[in-house]
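Notes from the pairing session

We agreed to fold both candidates in a single pass and log them together. This is the raw record for the first candidate, unedited. Please don't reformat it; downstream parsing expects exactly this layout.

Candidate A
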Amino acid sequence: LFITIAVLIGQIILVAMGGYALSRLHFPGRDFMFKLFITFMLLPGVVTLIPGFIILHSMNWVDTYWAMIVPALGNIWGMFLMRQYMLSLPSSIEDAARIDGASSWQIFWKVIMPLCKPVIATVGTFTFLSQWRSFFWPLIVTRSKEMRVIEVGVAMFSSQYVTNYPAQMAAAALSSIPMILVYIFAQKWIVQGIRLTSGYDK
């Protein structure tokens, strides 16, 4: 749970800042950078699996919280949703804030972020769900039992010769409860956020 919450908070902050920079700020190479990020979305995760592990091993981060938190902070899909939503916001709001003397940093935190609650809820929900059920990466970068996440722990009920199916099914059912609760409470924001970022709005 600690890892999931840490990734959730860090990822929302980073993707919001990236989405704001790519949608509201004007600097050379902005459009090229956005297209480059979109290209990276086409790459499967297994492409960066071995290089990522080598980098973490060289930094002595294997079997630490850093190995599971820091690589998960980057979310191009979340930044794409943030950018699309921020582009739908009227520029007059930002212009009025600048006339009042607000800096770009103040506009981001006090004007843009409060208006982005639907897309923040959407990104946050999918981040929580994907991080809570993450299995392959934590399995690779953790070695001790104390560092294993819940999905890896559930898989540990199965061994080479025998599988404790009752315990495994019970653990899987219990591990799905937080995901169900999060989706139930956030489904309104998820639908609204996806609808607005898709460009369809009545």
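Candidate B (folded immediately after A)
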Amino acid sequence: MSGLSRRQRRVYTRRGMLALGAAGVAGLVAVPLSAQADEYPSWKDVLKARSNVKDQQAEVRKIEGLLQRSQQVADAAQKVAEQRGTEYQTAQARVDAANERLKTIEKQVEADEKRAAQAKQRAGQLAAQLSRTGGADVETTLLLSGTDASATDFLKRLGSLSKLTESNGAIADEAAAAKNAAAATQAQMQQVKEELTALKEKARLALQAAIRASEAANAKVQEEQKRQVELQAQLKALQAKSESVARQYQAGVRAAQAAQGAGAGGAVGSGGWARPTVGGPITGGFGPRPDQPAGANFFHRGTDIGVAYGSPIYAAHAGTVTYAGWFGTYGYWIEIDDGDGVQTGYAHIRPGGIFVRVGQRVSAGQNIASVGSTGAATGPHLHFEVRLNEVAVNAVPFMAARGISLGW
């Protein structure tokens, strides 16, 4: 982009650049603008206007106005997409929190049921011991005893029997309390499950809305940026000192249209898994973090890998892209589902650094994006997540078990 103005370079780096898989301007000008000939100048108009200073100045003003309006249209579309993406992240965060509560309650249910079973077993053992100690009417036995010795012996048995009875009563109370606690926790667990089902449905609807908004914004942004690239080239042509230089700008746009920007893939291990980016230090691990960035969740559900801005991001496994767009504090985010209960996520992608679309099938090691620092990020890095049935797990041991080291 060395031949472009500072203003145009800003156009390339604006937040509206989503899912553009080509480097430079290649992916931005793939379609000619003949359909907009009534509103947008043709190259014939531009080259003709160079011959008259007044026409040239008018054409420059026209192009500058079109550039400004084009960026406003792109920004408006992207603003809607970001809002829907943030709503989706909020809905998904509520699902994650409900999953955490459910796991805690399930552990409590297991503990309560174990305690109730143990109390029941002890009560049964004491009942058996009581039956062995003596089940006849105590007073009758004392009346029929003929000697002081037999009466003394039975009084001792009576004392033991009384203690066993008291113990059995206490254990029975404990068993009943444990059973009641287990029942209450079971009811609470059922309530959370129902809540989780409702939250998942809301998250599903939010995801669909975010995908629609992202795709619409992507189409609009690409459309406007195609126009901007050609308009900028036309503006440069109008300002060029010679006819030959002006025609070089036109040729440059055509060359960009034919260029291919696909990046090389990453190395794939024997198990079919790949490192999600180039090597770098792990700068943030899975779990609670006391010093989280502003707006970020206290519990860090991914692994941060420190790599340079623009570094390639690779699909860690084969699968289908289920989301590619803005995701609140995650910035630009891609999620891939392998279809067998494993999902991986890639966050803080740079503007214009998403190279895949929702529904696309990707292979392990495929270059799907490039590193940025969007969202709640303090610097460029890849936030990499692994989820099992939509529940986040520690990515480091998970990937290590598949022969992949995430960093050092």
